[in-house]
Amino acid sequence: MRVALVSEHASPLAVVGAVDAGGQNVHVDALAGALARQGHDVTVHTRRDDPAQAEQVRTDAGYRVLHVPAGPAAPLPKDALWPLMPAFADALTVQLATLRTDVVHGHFWMSAWAADRAADALDLPRVVTFHALGTVKRRHQGTDDTSPPERVAVEFAVARAADRVVATCSDEVRELGRMGLAADRTTVVPCGVDATRFTPEQDATPVPARTRRHRVVTVGRPVPRKGFAVVVEALAGLPDTELLVVGGAGGRGPEPELDRLHQLADRTGVADRLHCVGQVPRAAMPALLRSADAVVCAPWYEPFGLVPLEAMACGVPVVAAAVGGMLDSVVEGVTGLLVPPRDPAALSVALGRLLADPDRRARMGAAGRQRVLERYTWPTVAGATADVYTAVLDRRPRAARPYRRG
Ligand code: UDP
């Protein structure tokens, strides 16, 4: 099949770890690569945000990236992109027609809107993965939510127009149901992890030297909803334990959330045990996760959460807030522990017990690795995604099945 993945702000070529580049970038890159390895012709369409970018880039992973001109060729916050989407959709339509795309898969609500418009013009089947829902964001972030006011209505409209909504976890199916979307319009296909790179085997990649008996690692874009402050607060109850916070702009621009964490650590007396290590390249991430006794994921909410999968693939137990995708990926008492969100005391108790029990940590780490191999490798996830594409194409009238050409 000729597959188009549309990801307006999250380029698979971006450096991840800063405020607007995280799991979606990793997901789109890995999904595109895995689909290409399964024999599909895959193009990722993403907004041109740098004048030096070539219009077309061939990646080593076997797919192409087409930069879509829409607005200034400069980085913009993702919440500023909505007014540019009509221009994005028009340019996308031309690209899809030129490539003779069979199926278009929009990632995030704005891409899904643009994909929908292009697919209407070209009579193509469309699939959508939201990655995050406006209703959930608004519930948790209230007036701090800077999404355009149209987001929730547009999300519902594109979900209804899609041939299929790919939800990444069962909690998202429930959330889509709350919005009014029938469960039979959705298929759950989780995100994946590269289990050949994220492995329990040590390698020579250098990691920061340990300064305390126990090491806890937490990873993500430095935004309040990732819950790093919850982990810093929990640290006060965990003697002889250091916390590594991974993620950041890598020196490009201010880091208000990391500044806030340092202030909190000063107030709670844990400043000498908090290490904000900043942005870490993809290649160095497995070694860093492996260096942890436990990886903590304590977001207020989490549409899916790649970091728990990455830790599990490395054989490291995960202590996670019982929200979103982690309700599916982390099995309580087996691959890790689930704790209530935004509850530093509960997190501290759960972590303290786990850190005190190395045998249990080893058992959980091994069970996490096993679970990843059974459910979350990219070949499995890409295969399930391709099955969705095949199903939506097969439901179209015979004359409109271009992928059966020849
Ligand atoms: N990540 C990274 N370097 C960093 C910080 C994060 O490579 O410095 C990666 C992390 O390993 C994961 C992704 O960014 O693959 C974050 O995805 P997740 O789903 O956990 O969070 P999101 O960013 O989607 O909210």
What is the compact description of this entry?
This protein has helices at 23-37, 85-99, 109-122, 134-141, 151-161, 170-179, 228-235, 256-268, 285-290, 306-313, 326-329, 344-355, 358-375, 378-394, and strands at 2-6, 41-47, 56-58, 64-68, 103-107, 126-129, 164-167, 186-188, 214-219, 241-246, 274-278, 294-297, 318-321, 336-339. The chain is α/β, with parallel strands linked by helices.
Sum up the structure in keywords:
406 residues, alpha/beta, Rossmann fold, 2 domains, eight-stranded mixed β-sheet, six-stranded parallel β-sheet, 16% strand, binds uridine-5'-diphosphate
Kindly describe this structure.
The protein is of the alpha/beta class and 406 residues long. The chain is 39% helix and 16% strand. Strand 13 (318-321), helix 11 (326-329) and strand 14 form a beta-alpha-beta unit. Helix 1 (23-37) crosses helix 14 (378-394) and helix 2 (85-99) crosses helix 3 (109-122). Bound molecules: uridine-5'-diphosphate. Residues 16-17, 22-24, 26, 219-221, 246-247, 279-280, 282, 285, 304-307, 310 line the site of uridine-5'-diphosphate.
CATH class of the largest domain: Alpha Beta
How much of the sequence lies in strands comes to 15-25%
Shape, please? globular
Q: Strands of the biggest beta sheet: in what spatial order?
A: 3-4-2-1-5-6-7-8
Distance between the termini: 12 Å
- CATH superfamily placement of the largest domain: Glycogen Phosphorylase B
Regions with pLDDT < 50 over 5+ consecutive residues? none
The hetero molecules present are: uridine-5'-diphosphate
Structural class: alpha/beta
Number of strands: 14
How many distinct folded domains? 2
CA-based gyration radius: 21 Å
Number of helices: 14
Largest sheet: 8 strands, mixed
Which quaternary structure do these chains form?
single chain
Keywords: Glycosyltransferase, Transferase
GO molecular function: glycosyltransferase activity
Organism: Friedmanniella luteola
Protein name: Glycosyltransferase involved in cell wall bisynthesis
